[in-house]
Specification:
The chain is of the alpha/beta class and 281 residues long. The strands form 2 sheets. It has a 6-stranded parallel beta sheet with strand order 1-4-3-2-5-6, sandwiched between helices. The protein has a 3-stranded antiparallel beta sheet with strand order 7-8-9, with helices on one face. It has 2 domains: 172 residues, Rossmann fold; 90 residues, Pantoate--beta-alanine Ligase, Chain: A,domain 2, CATH 3.30.1300. Helix content is 41%, strand content 20%. The chain has 10 helices and 9 strands. The protein is globular and about 55 Å long. Helix 7 crosses helix 8 and helix 9 runs antiparallel to helix 10. The longest helix is centred in the C-terminal third of the chain and has 21 residues.
């Protein structure tokens, strides 16, 4: 496994595989890796001849500077996990390598970015599009792998690929959960003991709502989740929306779509957690 820090070195490492007509897979990450990330890497390894994993905490997607400063960074541990998972190249650039000058590009994702995360994190998806497009241009992968925990982000990236007419496949992979049901996230490392104990209630309430939804309408199901989250003093709900899984627009009737997904963002103490559950697919 090679660890590279410059784009030119990355391109040189990939060129031999590309000239040999080998398939190249990319897993973009912000590090602080966990089993969820590794599941993406292992799938990438299984489906491609060369696997590249990027580890970069991207400053342009953080609208809260304290959140950026607090984001966990574990580069040595990440490298050891990636080598064990069969990764070929780890790209660990410095900020100056990815942004030698400010990226002034402005992406427009229309209705996709105007719901859920959009109003709460202004500029976030533009920052995501900036860094992911830079990685796509640097690696030129055949496939790129993303986790479905970031449900809205996957939809945004698919739209970006379409807009930029990039010749690659976006592969979305199911949420990986802890044994108690909490969706795996690098942010989980920031939970204290009490917060970690309570955090499992998020996935528990979502799971219960799926049973509830079988005999109740959309508005009642939404209220069920919001009321149960509200019972816990440690939680502060940003949003809970039940949306069409393709358009991300809120639905008011189960019959409006074949693909209904519930998406939540909730603060557990100071740590903001997101999760989702599929009601219809």
């Amino acid at each position: 496994m090679k660890i590279v820090k410059q784009i030119c070195e990355l391109k040189n490492c990939i060129s031999e595989a590309r000239n040999a007509k080998k398939n190249i897979g990319l897993v973009p990450t912000m590090g602080a890796l966990h089993a969820g990330h590794i599941s993406l890497v292992e799938r990438c390894v299984a489906e491609n001849d060369l696997t590249v994993v990027s580890v970069f905490v991207n400053p342009t997607q953080f609208n809260d500077k304290s959140d950026l400063a607090a984001y966990p960074r574990t580069p040595e541990q990440d490298a050891a996990m990636l080598e064990k998972a069969g990764c070929d190249i780890v790209f660990m650039p410095e900020v100056e390598e990815m942004y030698p000058e400010p990226d002034t590009r402005q992406f427009s994702f229309g209705a996709l970015e105007q719901v859920m995360e959009g109003p709460y994190r202004p500029g976030h998806f533009n920052g995501v599009a900036q860094i992911v497009s830079k990685l796509f241009y640097a690696v030129e992968p055949d496939r790129a792998y993303f986790g479905e925990k970031d449900f809205q982000q996957v939809a945004i990236i698919r739209e970006m690929v379409k807009q930029l007419q990039l010749p690659l496949q976006i592969v979305s992979c199911p949420i990986v959960r802890e044994a108690d049901g909490l969706a795996m996230s690098s942010r989980n490392q920031r939970l204290n003991a009490e917060e970690r104990k309570k955090s499992v209630l998020i996935s528990k309430i979502l799971l219960e709502s799926r049973t509830f939804a079988q005999s109740n309408n959309v508005a009642e199901t939404k209220a069920f989740v919001e009321e149960n989250i509200g019972k816990e003093d440690i939680f502060r709900l940003d949003y809970y929306e039940i949306v069409d899984g393709y358009t991300l627009q809120p639905i008011s009737d189960w019959n409006q779509t074949e693909y209904a997904v519930g998406c939540i963002a909730v603060f557990c103490g100071p740590v903001r957690l997101i999760d989702n559950i599929i009601y219809k697919s």
